[in-house]
Amino acid sequence: QVQLVESGGGLVQAGGSLRLSCAASGGTFSRYTMGWFRQAPGKEREFVAAIGWSGSSKYYADSVKGRFTISRDNAKNTVYLQMNSLKPEDTAVYYCAARALITTQAMGVLPPNAGSWGQGTQVTVSS
After folding, report:
1. 3-state secondary structure of 57
2. CA gap 60, 66 in Å, rounded
């Protein structure tokens, strides 16, 4: 099963940008659909974005569409989340997830006990 490690979180002012990275190891990265999720304090986990194995298929939550961009580099076994025009409501712990042979839409409803998950990285957006 693939192991995932997120990085790139931090504190940023509203309107700023951050790029999250998720490095994968222990599996054939190009077989996996990759996703980003987030969880704010006191709230349920929320889907953010997903990308198919080749990078051509992408799927976004309405709340981030037009502001966030998901991408992947299969040669580096890494998936990225470029976050622009950040808002205080984007504050959350961001998690990377991987599951083989599913669509990006299916990644959007991935159960917490399915696939592989990273440990998360904190993103805090100040107003």
Report:
1. coil
2. 9
Phi, psi torsion values for 71, nearest 5 degrees: -150, 170
Instruction: With CA atoms as reference, report the closest residue to 13 among 69, 66, 88, 122.
Output: 88
Task: Tell me the C-alpha distance between 100 and 21, whole Å.
Answer: 19
Element (H or E) spanning 48, and its range?
strand 46-51
Using only C-alpha atoms, what is the Rg of the chain? Answer: 13
Token readout for 5 is 């490690």
What is the C-alpha to C-alpha distance for residues 95 and 5, in angstroms, rounded to an integer? 9
Determine the pLDDT at residue 112.
87
> Does pLDDT of 1 surpass 90?
no
CA distance 27 to 31: 8
Q: Which residue has the higher pLDDT, 86 or 110?
A: 86
Helix, coil or strand: residue 39: strand
Is residue 122 a contact partner of residue 8, using CB atoms and an 8 Å limit? no
